[in-house]
Amino acid sequence: MILLLLLIVPLIAGPLAFLLRRRPIMEAINVTAFVMEMCLAIALVVRVLRSGPVSFMQGFFYADALSALMVLLTAFVAMACAIYAVGYFRHDERSGVLENPEKAGTGWSTQKLREYYALTPLFVFSMILVAVANNLGIVWVAVEGTTLSSVLLVMFYGRETSLEAAWKYAIIGGVGLSMALFGTILTYYSASRVLGTDTLSGLNWSVLVGNAAYFDKPTMRLAFILVLLGYGTKAGITPMHTWKPDAYSEAPIPGAAMLATGVLNCALYSLIRFYILSSKSLGPHFASQFLIIFGMLSMGVAVPFILVQKNFRRLLAYSSIDHSGIMVLALGFGGPLGILGMLLHMTFHSITKPLLFFCAGNVQQHLNTDLFRKAKNGLIHSMPLTGAAFLMAALAVTGSPPFSLFQSEFTILRAVFNRGPVALAVLFVAFLLAIFAGFLVHIANLVLGPDPGVPRVPACRWKKFSVAALAVVVIVMGFWIPAPLFQLIQNAVGIVTGAP
After folding, report:
1. Would you say the C-alpha torsion 137, 139, 144, 148 has a positive or negative sign?
2. Residue 3 backbone phi and psi in degrees, to 5
3. What is the DSSP string of 15-33?
4. How far apart are CA 121 and CA 115, in angstroms?
5. Greatest C-alpha distance within the chain
6. Tens digits of per-residue pLDDT, 4-56?
7. Any long-range contacts for 361-367 (C-beta under 8 Å, 24+ apart)?
8. Which residues of 106-119 are buried (b: 16+ CB within 10 A; e: fewer)?
């Protein structure tokens, strides 16, 4: 029943928030729902660690260690964003950002809040469904659901640039998911010679993985390429990344944080499932060569855009393109070290990236700009908590020791040295150093420096708590990973590598 409750809670929270129009009630429903999701995710992790995979409705819903990890990360990000959203949208409401001059006196700001608090639970529902659906066709439907709900968040503010970003996101994402659909259909076709065509379980992951060695191999090759292009578009790997900077810079900060972590994780999770099938059918080399190329290309393309970036929200988008490349590269090198590095990186990135977005949102709301040239340097004087957290998160997300992403990147580097040519390892390190330098220069210039004389920001306990709590988690995770979480990651590594 845990799997069912994980899906029911957001499905109830969305319509409730839409019907109950008072802002405090909408906020309470949203926060309560996602705290419940986090509790249910922890319960699922405990159950999977104790008893193995969990299934429901004759295997229609299914969760193993990899699924449970995705559910846990999604629930954590959703809870953090729900808490931050309270303070964020209260500031937007006070400053008139949510008002429409043409609809003055009509309660337009309340309508916009209803839209956000109704869409966000549906967004989270789709991400949870990606992780717990056993059928790969339902996984595709759920990923499409994340697009449909999040595209409305991208156009939330109704600006001309927001509409353009949403249009680009919908078109590019639609084309990508069409390729993923064709890849899913071809996977079913390649399995039909083994499973037959009259079974409803022909796309169930738990059935396919045991028979993948007997799939039609030419068909499976084409299927994996299409799936890689399709879900790679959703993950924002190069060259299918062009929607990310626009979408991340236009969506409300809590929505952008979920796009940068939850949606990225869902796309990579879907890709991992097909990678396992491809490896069992074709051997690991076929998929690995494509993943390594796309991973390196994504890291390389992110470097110049980070070095010359003028907008700090778009800077975070190119950072996500870099990190998606790192994780795809780790998956490509495979083996226990590569997969461990990828899943550790996914975990640490999901904790660190929301903190960066929250800090960026605080700065943007305080200065009414997201451009470095218009922002005042020395913001640590007027925003001491946000400034310190912004600089710390910048160090963490670029893999500086002792923060946790250094551990995952070092693990991936070991995998590159073990399974690839030295030239790739050198290139990997060079990209990481260039991104570290560019990122740190931008954020250090924004945060450090003499007092610019900007008035101090009035304390908002919701935003203050979100930033402080996440900063503590980021620091702690640099030195200590809870044993159950690491055991869950190790079990997920065994699923991907096929280890008993």
Report:
1. positive
2. -60, -40
3. HHHHHS--HHHHHHHHHHH
4. 11
5. 72
6. 999 999 999 999 988 887 888 999 999 999 999 999 999 999 999 999 899 88
7. 361/84, 361/88, 361/253, 361/463, 362/386, 362/457, 362/463, 362/467, 363/312, 363/390, 363/446, 364/253, 364/312, 364/313, 365/88, 365/91, 365/92, 365/95, 366/454, 366/457, 367/454
8. eebbeebbbbbbbb
The residue type at 15: P
The pTM of the whole model exceeds 0.70? yes
- Across 53-57, 98-102, 216-220, the highest mean pLDDT is recorded for 216-220
Q: State the DSSP code for 454.
A: P
Specify the residue for token string 């001059």: 101
Q: Residue 239: is the preceding peptide bond cis (ω within 30°)? A: yes
Q: What is the pLDDT of residues 240-299, one digit of tens each?
A: 888 999 999 999 999 999 999 999 999 999 999 999 999 998 888 899 999 999 999 999
* Per-residue pLDDT at 200: 61
Q: Which two tokens stand for residue 138?
A: 């339902």
Distance CA 233, CA 236 (A): 5
Give CA–CA dist 328/342, Å, rounded.
Answer: 8
| Alpha carbon distance 36, 339 (integer Å) | 30
pLDDT at 275: 94
CA angle 31, 33, 36 (to 5 degrees): 105
Cα–Cα distance for residue pair 289/376, rounded to 1 Å: 45
Structure tokens at 362: 């605080």
* 61-63/54-56 β-pairing: antiparallel
pLDDT band per the 50, 70, 90 thresholds, residue 60: confident
Nearest 10 degrees: Cα torsion 390, 435, 243, 151: -30
d(CA 338, CA 80): 29
Measured distance CA(408)–CA(412) in Å, rounded: 6
Tokens of 14: 């969305």
d(CA 451, CA 431): 34
Nearest to 21, CA basis, from 116, 126, 91: 116
Q: List Cβ neighbours of 400 (8 Å cut-off, separation of 6 or more).
A: 406, 436
Query: Model confidence at 104, in pLDDT bands (50, 70, 90)?
Result: very low
Residue listed under structure tokens 């994402």: 173
State the helix-helix crossing angle for 136-154 and 217-235, rounded to 10 degrees. 20
**Contact between 461 and 87 (Cβ < 8 Å):** yes
Q: Exposed (0-12), middle (13-18) or buried (19+): which is 461, by Cβ within 10 Å?
A: exposed
Lowest mean pLDDT of 221-235, 347-361, 450-464, name the range. Answer: 450-464
Tell whether the model's pLDDT for residue 80 goes beyond 90.
Answer: yes
**Of 301, 389, 403, 426, residue with least CA distance to 345:** 403
